[in-house]
């Protein structure tokens, strides 16, 4: 429980000191092991007792003392207009964030604080960088109380007061489950989270430890020339000699085995990362907004107020779309910092996504939606510019005397560019209804943005010289947490979209956006 530190200043939970001390001691484990092995390798146990053990005790004691000082010197004050945090042992720092700048308040539990029943409270300001604020660590009940208190003071007298224990129980009973991920769904999601980064790291590790082998691991000639496998054991001599005698077949088989091994590493890493991040995923509709809880080791609890959601994004991947899986993400002011993750449905069917979308006040497009595409001139110009680049490559090949190679960029490259530009034009489209703007793009991994027209912050028409000559323009919208842009519209269509969105924005009082919202959003 928080303790008063003088006046209205509060300290974090006293157990914060224990959590930080254990974490700091954990950082000494590797140096201790390395140092102990280095001394014992010389066979002198006396040096270990005389020098190393006292050094470990001094370092550990110093970490404990510093952790205690950090805890005593960190205080926070919940004022009428802002929340203020003061910290620092040698150098003091004070930060103050007005409630009106706080977009979201989330609770996070890493494994160690979770054992003590503590949470880290994160205040998302949407400004990015160092402007976000956090308090580590508070009791779970204190974190919940502080989140509700900040919300009520941020939204003024009309917001509900911070809940008591009975109120919290009543809210929990009235929460409506919108979406949950079973363990099977989480593991299935992980199968689609293949990571090339992990594969690259595995390949790098193998490269670093190839000195353990009697040949270069990435040299296929070395694998081909191994004909005597008796060094690996007499039992392998027969199969080894047979494999080496296959020649080119052995090379192909070895390449397939290596590719399969890297694929399994990538898939396994994706499953592990997804299980750690998404385990126990639950999205509920409460009177405060959408409440999302997830995580196996690090547990996060995030509330997304629906009136602060400016847009929704529905996306899928090249492979997962074949199985009917999509993802839904909310876009709010807090998303602009990049620190807040607002995945509402990370891996679901469209009927599951539609249920969540309806709860936010938005709506998916229907058959009556009037879709428009960009100007064909825009895609034709993009094709001609790409073709010009291919012709330059062909010219270089001809200058070097490779006339056969010169055909490849022009024929194959030009055809690929034409195919891509046609499909991009076909699948990039937009539609307007009374309250919303819909934009869709992508033919391999399609995505769609649903934006509330009255919550967009600006509209801008952009034309470069070629666009002015050819009669098309881009429309850029001010949207917190990401970019929203319509490319290559005819000038008449661009002006129509801008006028419609400006009418919606002009009719909205942004100072009251949290109190009243137009129908449908």
From TrEMBL:
The scientific name of the source species is: Qipengyuania citrea
**Protein name from the UniProt record:** Membrane protein
**Lipoprotein among keywords:** no
Read off the lineage from the record.
Answer: Bacteria, Pseudomonadati, Pseudomonadota, Alphaproteobacteria, Sphingomonadales
Q: Which domain of life is it from?
A: Bacteria
- Transmembrane annotation, as ranges: 21-39, 51-69, 186-206, 252-276, 382-400, 406-427
Specify the YdbS-like PH domain's residue ranges. 71-149, 281-340, 425-499
What keywords would UniProt list here? Membrane, Transmembrane, Transmembrane helix
- Mind telling me which InterPro entries this protein's record contains? UCP026631 (IPR014529), YdbS-like_PH (IPR005182)
